[in-house]
Amino acid sequence: MVNQREKKVLKMTQSPSRTERSINIIEYFQKKGAQVDAWLERLLPAVSEAPSLIHEAMRYSIFAGGKRLRPILAIATGEAFNAEERTLLPAACSLEMIHTYSLIHDDLPAMDNDDLRRGMPTNHVVFGEGMAILAGDALLTQAFRTLADCEGGTPQRKLRVLSEVASAAGTVNSLIGGQVLDLQFEGKSVTGEQLESIHRAKTGALIRCAVRIGAIVGGADEAELRALTVYGEKAGLAFQVADDLLDETATSEELGKTAGKDAASHKATYIALYGIDGAREMADRLYHEAVAALNSIDRETIMLEEIARFIVERKS
Amino acid sequence: MVNQREKKVLKMTQSPSRTERSINIIEYFQKKGAQVDAWLERLLPAVSEAPSLIHEAMRYSIFAGGKRLRPILAIATGEAFNAEERTLLPAACSLEMIHTYSLIHDDLPAMDNDDLRRGMPTNHVVFGEGMAILAGDALLTQAFRTLADCEGGTPQRKLRVLSEVASAAGTVNSLIGGQVLDLQFEGKSVTGEQLESIHRAKTGALIRCAVRIGAIVGGADEAELRALTVYGEKAGLAFQVADDLLDETATSEELGKTAGKDAASHKATYIALYGIDGAREMADRLYHEAVAALNSIDRETIMLEEIARFIVERKS
Fold first, then answer.
1. Residue A259 to residue A244: CA distance in whole angstroms
2. Cβ of residue B110 closer than 8 Å to a chain A Cβ
3. Structural domain of residue A262, as residue ranges?
C-alpha cells in the first residue's frame, strides 16, 4: 500500500498542467468517441436492411451527437486492465444503445414530453410515437444481442457482463426504476435522500455499470472491482449534480435541450435543495471522493481521474 | 431413416384416440402452465420491492391468463432432449416476458390502441401510458437478465440461447420488425407473400425461437435443430392463420380481446386473402407439414405433434 501511495504522489507531482490536461481529455473523448461511433455503425442494422424505417429511427438518435460518456468510461477502465478491443468496444457500445433507448422513451409525450434532445427534434417528433417506442425497444434488444455475440473474452465473463448490464438497466435501484421514481415524485417536494435515490437509479446505475463492465472485461480482481465501483458511484452522482447546475446556468443552445425545464416543471434538483453554491461544493466533493477511490488500484488510472474532472467541469 | 419411420408408424398406430389426445394436451398445458407461472413468480421482482408500482404493472400483464404457448413449446422441445429444468424453465419464461412486453407496447394508443387483452383492461388503461411503456421495457430487460443468470448448462450454450432470443426479438425478420410492418401496412391491401412476411416476423420468429432454444438447452445436434426449426416455422404460421380464423369466427368473450377488430380496421388477414375455407385449409396443411418435419428426429415428439394440433384447433 505504501508503495502504491508513493507512486500516486509521484504521478501527481509529475502531472501535466491543468491546461494540458484539459486538452488531453478533450482529445481522448474525440478519439474514443470516434472509435465508439465506428463500432456502433457496424453493430446496428444497416438502413438498407428491411424494415428500413426502424433502422433509420434507431440510428437517428444514436448518431445525434451524444458525448459517449458511458462507453468512454467503460473503455477507459478496460484499457487500464489491457482489455481486448474486440470485446471491450461492443460491451461499451451496448451501454450507449441502452442510454439512447432510455432517452427516446423518456422523451415521449406519456413521459417527460420533450421535443428537443442533443440539439435535435426528439425521436417521436421525427418518426411518430409508435415508431419511437419501437426504436427504443429495438436499441435495448440490440444491446443484449451485441453483448451475447461479441468476440474474444471467456463465455463466463461475457455472461457476467450481460447480467451486470441487465441489472443496471432494470427496475431495482436501476435505470427503469429511476424513471418510475422520477415520474412519481414530479411536482412533489423531495428530501436530499430521496433525490439521491432517484439519481443513483436513473443515471448512477448505468455509469457505475460502465466502469464495472470495463473492469470485468479487463479481468480486474474483486478488490479492484470494489474500488472502481466506488469511483463509478461517485462519478455518477457528480454527473447528475453537474447536470442540474448546467440546466440552471447554461442556455438551451449550449445544452442542446430545453434549459431550465426541470425548474419550470418543479422537478426535484440539487439546486432546489442546496442552491447553486451548495450544489457546486457537492460536485467538487464527489469528484475528490471518486479520485480517492482510485488510490488503491495499482494501474494507470489518470484517464479515469480526468473523466471525473470532465464530468463536473463540462459545459454541456 | 427406415428404422425411424417404422417407429413413427408404430407410434401412430398405437396413438390414443382423438378424445384421449385432446384431454392429454389440455392436461399438459395446465401442468406446464402452472410450472411456468411458478417460475415467473420467482423470476420477476416482488411487488414488495421498490418501486412497487412497476413490479405490479409487470405482474399484472404477465399473470393475466395467457396460454403460455411459447414457454410450453420450449419446454416440450427441451423435454424431448432431457434438458435440465433449472436451465430450461428460466429460458422458457424469458420468452413469455418478451411476448408480454410486446403485447403491452402493441396495445398502446400510439400503436394498435387496444383496451382489452386476455379479457382484462390493457396495461396502459390500468397503469397509464408512461408506466405501461416502462413495464414493457422492464419485462424485456428482465428476460435477458433471466437468461444470463439461469443455473446449469454451459456458458457457451447460454450465450447461444441469449443470442437466439435477442435476434428473434429484434428488427430483421423478427418481433419488432413485424410490428413495424404491421403499422406500415395497416389499411393497405397486401399480397399473400407480404402477409406471410409480416407474420413470419411478428409471431413466427418467437415461436420458432421457442422450439430452437428448447433444443439448444437440451443439446440437440445441428440436424435435429434444422428439423425442429422447420416444425417451429410451420407451427408459427399455423398459429397466425388460426388466430385470424378465431378473430373472424369467435366472440370477444371467447377470445378475451376485441373480436372482429382486424376486419374492422382493414388489417391484412388470411381470411381477407383466402376466405374462411381457404384459411382453414392452409392451417391444416401447415399442421401436417409441421408434424412431418418431426419425422427425422429419433426422440419422443408426440407432445410437439399435439401442440401443433392444439395450435390449429384451439378456441381462444
1. 10
2. yes
3. 2-313
A178 pLDDT higher than 90 = yes
Residues A123 and A60: beta-carbon distance below 8 Å: yes
Mind spelling out the 3-state secondary structure of B240-269?
HHHHHHHHHHCCHHHHCCCCCHHHHCCCCC
B180 touching A (Cβ < 8 Å): yes
Q: pLDDT digits over A237-296, tens only?
A: 999 999 999 988 876 566 566 665 655 555 678 998 899 999 999 999 999 999 999 999
Q: Which three cell numbers stand for residue B196?
A: 406471410
Selected for mutation to probe chain B from A49, A123, A124, A134 (highest B CB count within 10 Å) is A134
DSSP strand E in A115-253: where? 116-117, 120-121
Q: How many domains does chain A have?
A: 1
Residues 32-61 of B with CB under 8 A from A: 45, 49-51, 53-55, 58
What single-letter DSSP state applies at residue A21?
Answer: H
Amino acid occupying residue A67: K
Alpha carbon distances (Å) from A73 to A20, A39, A101, A152, A199: 20, 16, 19, 20, 18
CA atoms of A102 and A110, how far apart (whole Å): 13
- Answer whether B129 sits within 8 Å of A144, measured CB to CB: no
C-alpha cell at A59: 440510428
Q: What integer pLDDT is reported at residue A2 of this predicted model?
A: 40
Q: Where are the alpha helices (DSSP H) in A190-221?
A: 192-199, 205-218
Report the 10 Å Cβ neighbour count for B239: 23
Residues 141-170 on A with a CB inside 8 Å of B are 141-142, 144-145, 147-149, 154-156, 158-159, 162-163, 166-167, 169-170
Residue of A nearest to B108 (CA): A130
pLDDT tens across A151-163, in order? 999 999 999 999 9
- Maximum Cα–Cα distance across chain B: 60
Tell me whether residues A142 and B169 touch, CB distance under 8 A. Answer: no
Among the partner-chain residues B144, B177, B179, the one whose CB lies closest to the CB of A162 is B144
Please, are residues A312 and A253 in contact by the beta-carbon 8 Å criterion?
A: no
Q: Which three cell numbers stand for residue B270?
A: 388470411
End-to-end CA distance of chain B: 38
Cα(B30)–Cα(B63) distance, rounded to whole angstroms? 14
Per-residue pLDDT of chain B (316 residues; tens, 9 = 90+): 344 544 444 444 455 566 666 669 999 999 999 999 999 999 999 999 999 999 999 999 999 989 999 999 999 999 999 999 999 999 999 999 999 999 999 999 999 999 999 889 999 999 999 999 999 999 999 999 999 999 999 999 999 999 999 999 999 999 999 999 988 888 888 888 998 899 999 999 999 999 999 999 999 999 999 999 999 999 999 999 999 999 888 765 665 666 656 555 556 789 988 999 999 999 999 999 999 999 999 999 999 999 999 999 987 7
Q: What is the pTM of this model?
A: 0.92
A140 has a chain B CB within 8 A of its CB:
yes
In the 8-state DSSP scheme, what is residue A46? P
The CATH number of residue A111's host domain is: 1.10.600.10
